Amino acid sequence: MNKNLFSLEFVHLEDLLFHETCDFKRTQKLAEEIKKDGHLKNPVLVASVNIEGTEKREKLLVGSGCLHPEPLLLPGRDAQEQQLNPGKGEKLLVLDGVNRVSALKLLNVPDVLIQMVDYEDQKVKLSSWNHLIFDGQKEQLIKKIKDLSLEVSFCPLKWAEEALKDQRTISYFLFKDLTGFVVNTGDFASEDKVKKLYKLIATYNGRSEICYLDPENHFISIFAHFKNSSAINLIPRFDKKEILNLAQKGCLLPFGVTRFIVPNRVLGLEVSCSVLAAQTPLSEKNLFLKELLAYRIKTKKAKFYQESVTLFNE
């Protein structure tokens, strides 16, 4: 196995930069699981980026996800401790794993295992998640969205792809009867779109169950498979430059919007919390990691899958 397929290392949590809020319920549940099991599964996916500094700092949140656009302070921490990566220079942007990082913060664990990728690599692609909504009433949902002073227009499914390319579009809703409508902000500014996206998702998040779908899923088969599903919220894709600009401004996206796709993703590698929590220099922890990986590879306890796989162990 080529040892250069991936880059793994231990880093301090304080060096991580969020681009999205976390899901508070998921974070709490994950923290309980980590505390019970005594280890963290799967490295957090990050990319090294240059930050020029921001005029406004948002406090790092273990937030209520899409239910509220403002950050919530971690229990037992003051605001100063939770500043979102103040200063300029090189930072580690969390591409996937915000809930795991937030869970470790709740447990006062200082370090985490990360997989580093090149943000500028064309193979590192940014997609989005679609939201499958259950037990939602079509008329009620449309009314709630219109009450947000957003532009709502009927749009046939065959035009959905084109509608989602409009920079003012923040959503396309497809209902089980295959009728759909597009939601526009009337504004091209990214920050304004993010704020309105929070409010839009809040119309159904917490009130009905949500399943996160790959955009490539076939809509009709999804509705047929999930009998009590009622609608799908198709969310436009942000681009990587836009994500970086928003993170630099401290403008965090709602959880469950972005999906980074990277080659050679490392999964199934467990690290003991005793290692993460140890007051040991990172250099020593990374030496331990190097020896661990060498042993796993030598004993053929690492497998590389070039094709897509389906996992049921999470």
* Strand arrangement across the biggest beta sheet: 9-11-10-13-8-12
Number of domains: 2
Mean of pLDDT: 83
Low-pLDDT runs: 54-86
Q: How many strands, which pairing sense, and closed or not: the largest β-sheet?
A: 6 strands, antiparallel
Name of the CATH homologous superfamily of the largest domain? Conserved hypothetical protein from pyrococcus furiosus pfu- 392566-001, ParB domain
Instruction: From the 3D structure, determine the CATH topology of the largest domain.
Output: Conserved hypothetical protein from pyrococcus furiosus pfu- 392566-001, ParB domain
CATH architecture of the largest domain: Alpha-Beta Complex
Order of helices and strands: EEHEEEHEEEHEHEEHEHEHEEHH
- The general outline is elongated
Topology, number of strands: 15
Distance between the termini: 25 Å
Oligomer: single chain
CATH class of the largest domain: Alpha Beta
Helix content range: 25-40%
- What is the radius of gyration computed over CA atoms, rounded to a whole number of angstroms? 20 Å
Range of strand content:
15-25%
